Prior knowledge:
This protein is an alpha+beta fold and 257 residues long. The protein folds into two domains: 5-40, no CATH class; 47-252, MFS general substrate transporter like domains (Growth Hormone, Chain: A, Up-down Bundle). 61% of the residues lie in helices and 10% in strands. The protein contains ten helices and six strands; from the N terminus they run ββββααααααααααββ. The strands form two sheets. A four-stranded antiparallel β-sheet has the order 3-2-1-4, with no helix packed on it. Strands 5-6 form a two-stranded antiparallel ribbon. A hairpin with a 5-residue loop joins strand 1 (5-13) and strand 2. Helix 6 (120-140) runs antiparallel to helix 7. The longest helix has 32 residues, at 175-206. The N and C termini lie far apart (50 Å). 32% of the residues are buried.
Amino acid sequence: MATFxxxxxxxxxxxSTEPFQAIHHNGNAQDGWIMNDVxxxxxxxxxxxxxxxFRPASLxxxxxxxxxxxxxxxxYLNVFLVTQQQWSxxxxxxxxxxxxxxxxxxxTPIGAAIDETRAKRSLxxxxxxxxxxxxxxxFAMPRFWPVAIxxxxxxxxxxIFGPAVxxxxxxxxxxxxxxxxxxxxxxxxxxxxxxxxxxxxxVGYFFSQRAVFLLVPVFSVLAGIAVLSIPAAAIDHDRARDxxxxxxxxxPLSIAN
Length: 257
């Protein structure tokens, strides 16, 4: 006669974000699995985020639009300076090297600041403002020193987006939901890359290559609106820093206020 053991774990019922107890009766290899309830892993945010008014589409929009903000510059700046402004390759190399090294040197302190602060949304907004001002400066004054200063500030501001969005995601979703949500973040990020390539090409063709830089402030405004659409109360900052002590492998059992 087959023997059965029962295991109890917290999961989510279809159509609900409230946890309940599901019992699985596990027999031997011949008997296999018998499930009393149909259960699924929910892709919805946790109860705290949902009650505060958070909608997953806000995080989707942030990933999509931040990709547009960064993609509107990228390698396009180098091509623009050489082909349209007649910069030498050594001048372009010097500007990109200085900005790259500066951005690399501040990654660790910026990451530590994002981990420590509760004003994660504000940091993203600040970085968007810097990017918008820098791109506008390059559009208006494509000379060596203005471009060098603006590109360096843009490199520093760009270091904020990755860890800040990751921290927001950690604060909005439980660990059990995190892998799926991070994959969704990446999907919208790549979709944004494709979108900005098409839009930048159209703007450069119908208007001018210089006008492409004006896409940055436009998308910065849209990205800022998406960031502010996430309620501050929806973010669990302790979980974002992995400080939620009352959690198990499936996610937090209690949320700190």
